[in-house]
Every structure is written in structure tokens, then in C-alpha cells.
Amino acid sequence: MPRLRMLLSVALLAACNSPTGAVAQDGTPTATAFPFKVTPVADFDAPWAMTFLPDGSMLITEKAGTLLLVSPDGKQKHTVAILPVDAAGQGGLMDVVLAPDFAKSRHVYLSYSTAGEGGKGVVLARGQLSDSDDVCSTNNVCWREREPELTAVTELFRATPFVSGNGHYSGRIAFSPDGKYLFFTNGERQKFDPAQDPKATLGKVLRLTLDGRPAPGNPLAAQGFHPAVWSYGHRNLLGIAFDAKGNLWEQEMGPKGGDEANLILPGKNYGYPKVSNGDHYDGRDIPDHAPGDGFEAPKVWWNPVISPGGLIVYSGAMFPQWKGDLFIGGLSSQSLVRVDVNGTNAKKGDQWPMGARIREVEQGPDGAIWLLEDGSDGSQGRLLKLTAN
């Protein structure tokens, strides 16, 4: 099929799949289709996560192990670190989040997959971002003698046990509102049962100190659980964030059906693989969540699935109508998904077709919403900025 015909067909298909969406010939959703304007800013090779620095520049991870410092306009990219990751399958360099005291410590937290005794697993690490050296002459001509680098990268925590396979690492990071604790997601690595195993960190939300140790007072330690466990019975947890009231929200991929958005409560069992609103891929049934079954049910679930990627709780001023709502990147659904939050309750909101797998969602300093496509450089691996029309 000629390229123009192919692009037109993709655009028509995307528009037909949703009465509110359309895609331009270059693959960018048209601004008139949504309550926001979509602006491509830069392009990357399989990007996974991003975070903003105080000056508006960005740190962006690429799956193969490269951590990039990107200018606010996306025109300048500088490699600040290359991490020794195992990038097979769903593995690679994953999340990047600034420390709560970044302005003072310059600490940056990362997650990535690595191989070791027993197989592979996800690791939490921390490095320190150096300042650039800018030099100016007497006539005010300035240049940069040294670019920033991520130095003293140290492993703080690793999931246990390491197992075979290349899927469901998870590896998302969030800090408690008081800045004292780090919450870290460990996927069940497509092994099912570890999500219910009290000794494993797999299939769990963990609460750690900023140095990666199990936080004191975790709710299940006295019951024989690994001392880092905060909640359990999860599958593949690819988003976690606190709202303004201190509630912890998480989203995860269900099996064949049953993607979830959860309110994470200490010590609770979220059921997988004993219950789920989806089924196993081989067709075996999993009992649905039901009142009184002893498991914490999701606040929202999807079937057909959205394949949730990154997650934010929106707090900006650019879109005041969505303040406090969840925004989720859709991978197989190629969408941006909004969940309408009211206190500790939630319901489905909008789902906008974006014409590409959306891996990451982030909020910019001015309240704009930023997205990373889950593709290769030159082929839907773009950084998109969403602003008010």
C-alpha cells in the first residue's frame, strides 16, 4: 500500500474507533479532536519514563539503559548515564524520580532490570546529578565546559527472588508526601503465586526508607512477611502516585481482562492470582472480585483492557476541571485515559485515542500534560506536550 494511503487508512480507523478522536497524517492526534492541543517536542529510542528538573529540563530514560538530560524545548539531549541493564523483553532502564530533597542532595532514583543469581529482577538505585560548568568571558560570552553527569550510582534494593523470564518487572517509584519514605512496585514476573507469597517481594507494593531499607512499622512484618511489604496480591504495577490528600493510587495490568486502578491501603491483599476481573491467557477462569471475599477490589477496572502504563494524579492549573483526577497511559489501547476521582472513590472518565502506545504520563511545571510514546526513534517514540486549546 502506498505510504499516503496507509497513513490515511490509519487516520480513518482511529477516528472510527472513537467518536471523539482523529489522527493526522503524521500520526499526531489532531488538536480539534480533543480538549487539548498536542505538540510533538522530541523523539527517542524506546523511552520509558521522565521527570522534570527545577529549571524545566527533563530526565528521560530509554529502555536500553541511557539516561538523557533534555532541554525544556526538546532540542538538546545529553547523555548523563548509561546503566548496565538487562533490556530483554519488558526489561531495561525504567523509572526515574527526583529525591524529595533534590535541590540540596541532587539525588536521582532509578529502577532497572538486571541478571543475577537465580535469574533476573528489578533493582532500585540512586545516583547524584552533577551541576554543569558554565564559563563566561569578560565580554559575557558563555560556554559550557562540562555537562552534567549522574555519578555515584548505587544499588539500594533488589526484588527477591530473582527468577527466569523477561516480563512484569514493574519498578515504579513514588515518595510519601512527607518525603520520608519511598514506595516501590515489584511485579510478580509472570509467575502468579509469588504475589501471595509472604516471603517474596514480587507482586507487592513496598515501603522503603530513602536508603532502600525496609521502612520501620510496615504493616505485615509481624505476620512473617518480607519486612518491606506494604500491600500484596498485585500483578504488573506500572504506575503509582499520591494525591493531594495523601491517598496512594496504583494501576496495574490484569491478565486477559481486568486491568485495575487501585487505592493502596496498608496491609491489604489485592487478590491476584486468586481473584481478578480477568482470566488467564490459556482460558482458565479466575474468580471475579466479589463483596466479602477478603480481598481489596479495584476502584476501577477495564475489560477490554487498556494496558495501563504511566500514572499521574493531576494537580495543575492548566486543566482545572481535572484537578485530582488520574491520568494513565494506555499501551495496547494506544490511548490516554482519565479516571474521575472523588475522594477515595473513582469512576471511568475519558479515553482519548492517541494513535500510539503511551508508556508514560507526566505533569509539567506549568500544568501541561506530557506523554512518552512507547516506540523507537523515528517511529512513535515521541515526547508529546498537551496544552489547553
Tag the structure with descriptive keywords.
389 residues, mainly beta, 4-stranded antiparallel beta sheet, 5% helix, globular, disordered N terminus
Notes on the structure:
Helix content is 5%, strand content 42%. With 389 residues, the protein is mainly beta. The strands form seven sheets. Strands 1-26-25-24 form a four-stranded antiparallel β-sheet, with no helix packed on it. A four-stranded antiparallel β-sheet has the order 2-3-4-5, with no helix packed on it. The protein has a four-stranded antiparallel β-sheet with strand order 6-7-8-11. The longest helix is centred in the first third of the chain and has 15 residues, at 3-17. 45% of the residues are buried.
The helix count comes to: 2
Q: Give the fraction of residues assigned to helices.
A: under 10%
Assess the beta-strand content as a share of residues: 35-45%
The 3D shape can be described as globular
Name the helix and strand elements from N-terminus to C-terminus, one letter apiece: HEEEEEEHEEEEEEEEEEEEEEEEEEEE
Separation, N- and C-terminal Cα atoms: 35 Å
In the predicted model, the low-confidence regions spanning at least 5 consecutive residues are 1-20
Mean pLDDT: 91
Strand order of the largest sheet: 1-26-25-24
Helix vs. strand class: mainly beta
Number of strands: 26
Q: How many strands, which pairing sense, and closed or not: the largest β-sheet?
A: 4 strands, antiparallel
Radius of gyration: 21 Å
